[in-house]
Write a structure and sequence with these properties.
This is TIGR04197 family type VII secretion effector. By secondary structure, the chain is mainly α. Helices cover 60% and strands 3% of the residues. The chain has three helices and two strands. Helix 1 packs antiparallel against helix 2. The radius of gyration is 27 Å and the shape is elongated.
Length: 124
């Protein structure tokens, strides 16, 4: 098998999980306590701004989660199309390549120099 069609829902899921972690962090940070006792002139304006920020943050989280769902759906679609294309082209898919891969131990490359690398010494 010389060629492989590269598509993987696992990779998409990995990236989606990272994005989801960010959305969850945003959601976790929206617990706000407002100062209802102080009667400063800007306090009422600040309270309204806090409410707007809370609503906006939750809307952003919702959109991020929708985006993640779309990414995962597209990845599944690509994987299905890639499997069909691979079959028609007579090449393998990533899943087939992984399942048929054999690992051969590499022999260590012998050191050709006895000097050590010093990152602080210029190599002129």
């Amino acid at each position: 098998m010389g060629s492989v069609i590269l598509s993987s829902t696992a990779t998409a899921a990995e990236f989606a999980q990272g994005i989801m972690n960010g959305a969850n962090a945003i959601e976790a940070s929206v617990d706000v306590t407002k100062d209802e006792d102080t009667t400063l002139s800007g306090n009422e304006t600040a309270s309204g701004a806090i409410d707007t920020e809370l609503t906006t943050s939750l809307q952003i989280c919702g959109q991020i989660k929708t985006f993640i769902s779309n990414v995962q759906s597209v990845a599944k679609g690509f994987e299905a199309v890639d499997a069909t294309m691979a079959e028609k082209m007579g090449v393998g898919t990533v899943a087939e390549a992984i399942s048929s891969a054999t690992v051969t131990p590499q022999t260590p490359i012998p050191a050709t120099s006895t000097t050590t690398f010093d990152p602080f010494t210029p190599s002129y």
